[in-house]
Amino acid sequence: MTGARGFRQELVALFGQPVDENPTQAMIEAAFRAADLDWRYLTIEVAPEGLADAVRGLRAMGMRGANCTIPHKVAVMEHLDAIAPEARAIGAVNCIVNENGRLTGHNTDGRGFLASLCAVADPAGQQVVILGAGGAARAIGVELALAGARSITIVNRSAERGRALARHLASAGARANFLPLAGDLRLPAGTGIFVNATSIGLHPDAGAHVPLVFDTLRPNLVVADVIPNPPRTRLVREATARGCTVLDGLGMLVNQGVIGFHLWTGADPDPQVMRAALEEIFGAPTHA
Ligand code: NDP
What we know:
binds NADPH dihydro-nicotinamide-adenine-dinucleotide phosphate, 6-stranded parallel sheet, Rossmann fold
């Protein structure tokens, strides 16, 4: 597959540290192949002190864009030419698009989550509980606020971080409050959507306990976990067993990738191909 440009491929990259375990390349390159695009996605370890040079390199090499992951999502913003409104509202960038040398920072994490959620439920008017107050919780909280959630309760181990996120969402116009985490959380009556946006359950601590009284999960709840690896977390299994509508972290990962792919290439990728590439890596159907 040489295409009209001969032997040169269009390039997209992932900048992060650590990145060795990040599976995004497999997902995006599967989508490039399925769309018959002669593009490459490079997984590149970039230390914090090398970030400015990495972005200069992206410009110099005419790369079409990049994803940013830990620890660059906030720091990268000062190196870009423009920040998209949702990334500005979230305060972090995970996707860079290079349009003729002008770099724009986007945030696809929250929109990816929302795309997964909207496939099963409309968040407008819902009472939402988010466990966690880090970058993922922030992106999800802002998008849920923009989507018209009736109220958003942030529950977090660090009270300072939890309060700050609740304040941030309130300043964006949401009805948001902070609930301190004291022992296992009992979901308040009326909760329609529960999101685990912490890193609890992430490989290699797959068995780690999400501080939740599982018996407060009722069948009419939507339960979403951000953990992509392994996809069948303990929370996903407990919620499935109780008849909840359950979203795993692979859906969010695929959907944020779909948005990034479209921003870079202008084409719509096949989400099934992307999910299949990840399931091959994580063994989703059999992971217990
Ligand atoms: P951060 O480090 O910014 O935040 C981590 C959050 O988890 C904080 O709220 C932290 O609480 C909480 N936490 C961690 N360990 C514990 C624990 N033992 N008990 C209670 N709370 C805990 O990480 P991110 O928000 O960037 O990422 C969170 C997760 O989201 C990661 O696992 C990541 O893989 C996943 N993610 C998934 C995506 C997807 O597409 N599926 C996209 C982006 C992220 P505290 O503030 O008290 O430290």
